[in-house]
Structure formats: structure tokens, C-alpha cells
Amino acid sequence: MPAATLASLNRRRIVSAAIGTAATAAVVWLYLSRGHPPHREPADAVPIQDGRTLDFSSGSPVLKDDAANKAKMDAALRDIDAADKTVTFRPDPTPTK
Q1: pLDDT at 89
Q2: Contact 71, 87 (CB under 8 A)
Q3: Which of 42, 57, 59, 77 is the most buried (most CB within 10 A)?
Q4: Structural domain contains residue 84
Q5: Residue 7 has what pLDDT?
Q6: Is 95 a domain residue?
Q7: Are residues 27 and 57 in the same domain?
Q8: For residue 59, what are the contacts with CB-CB under 8 A and spacing of at least 6?
Q9: Is 13 within a domain?
Q10: The domain containing residue 69 runs over which residues?
Q11: 50 and 25, same structural domain?
Q12: Are 54 and 61 in contact (CB under 8 A)?
């Protein structure tokens, strides 16, 4: 190849690399310059309390503590305990060679 063709190819590579580097630097700068908001708890956070239920049907969390919910929770816990007594998990079989 003639020397002029090689010089032209090298210039193209240099210009392409410079454009790629500039574009990458611009994207990184835009990403970093935005900043990130600090992680905060939601303003309407409700602490979990035993024996009470959270109701989200109104769109915001509301703690409920009535007899009907307690009866449902007790029934659900009895069902879970009953199922827990009858369910067993066997270990995985030992692989053979």
C-alpha cells in the first residue's frame, strides 16, 4: 500500500477513536452530573405491630385492630400450624457416579 493510503487510514482511526472517546466521556459526565437522591423512608411508613393488620384498600396504610381481623389471623395461623405438621421435605438424593 502507498504511504498516503496508510496515513489516511491512521487518521481515520485516530478521528474515530477520538469521537468515540468524546461521546463516551459526554455520556459518563451526563450520568454523573445528574446526582442521585438520597435513600429515604417513605413519609407514610407505618411500623409493624403484632396482632394488628395493615389495610391498604384506601390507598394509604391504615392499622386495624378489630375482632374480625384477629379471628381471621388466628384461623390462618391455625391452618399454617396444621399444614406445618403434615408437610415434610426429604433431602436430595445422593448423586451416584
Answers
A1: 84
A2: no
A3: 77
A4: yes
A5: 65
A6: no
A7: no
A8: none
A9: yes
A10: 44-89
A11: no
A12: yes
Q: What is the pLDDT of residue 27?
A: 94
Q: Give the number of domains in the chain.
A: 2
Angle value at C-alpha 85, between 81 and 89, nearest 5 degrees: 120
DSSP the chain: --HHHHHHHHHHHHHHHHHHHHHHHHHHHHHHHH--PPP---TT-----TT-EEE-TTSS-EEE--HHHHHHHHHHHHHHHHHHHH---PPPPPP--
Amino acid identity at 9:
L
Give the residue ranges of the chain where pLDDT is below 50: none
Cβ–Cβ < 8 Å for 63, 56: no
Report pLDDT for 73: 85
**C-alpha cell of residue 95:** 448423586
pLDDT recorded at residue 3: 58
CA-CA distance, 67 to 51, in Å (whole number)? 10
Cα separation, 10 vs 84, in Å, equals: 73
**CA 23, 24, 30, 31 torsion: positive or negative?**
positive
In a domain, 66, yes or no: yes
